[in-house]
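Thread: Newbie trying to understand structure tokens

Hi all, I'm a second-year student working on a class project, and my supervisor (Dr. K.) asked me to get a predicted structure for one chain before our next meeting. I've only ever worked with sequences, so writing a 3D structure as a token string is new to me. If someone could post the tokens and maybe explain what I'm looking at, I'd be very grateful. Here's the chain:
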Amino acid sequence: MPLTRQQKETRVAEVSDAVQASVGTVFLAYDALNVADVNELRDKLFETGCTMRVVPKRLLKIALAAKQFGFDPMAHEGQMAIITGNDPVSPAKVLFEFVKGKENLRLVAGILEGKEITTQEVTALAKLPSKEQLLGQLVGVLAGPMRGMAQVLSGVPRATVYVLTAIKDQKDGK
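---
Reply by user tm_fold:
Sure, no problem. This is what the structure looks like when written as tokens:
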């Protein structure tokens, strides 16, 4: 059943607000996606706090034009899904992993913190380490100088112990 004008206006407003409110948005073009794949994708997105909406391309174009985004969904084949998230990397990461090996799915473009990004930039964003990995690397980098200082400072007492042990051994006649 076709959407009424009021339903279309509501859907356009919802999509506009979702894109504006999200930190990371990725557009996914797809053909003949089965129910099992859609459910699997939605479950993976839900785990990371992302949402997926399938929006008619014409309404998506209107919603994006209202927020001054130049992305044209009409220029791409297939249906269009919009994935939004509060984390800039999560939507791209989940979709990048999900799209691997599936010919009927294509990452098309994205929006990161209010700026449009290309497919290559979405892919580069997806290949970034996770937030936890980056924090772990930061801790390692910050702990490195402290570890080095501890090694240097422990060298003085260690050298003193070695000297005292050598004197003791010399006096014992060994």
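A couple of things are worth pointing out once you decode it. The two ends are 99 Å apart (CA to CA). The beta strands are 24-30, 51-54, 79-85, 105-112, 115-117. Feel free to ask follow-ups in this thread.
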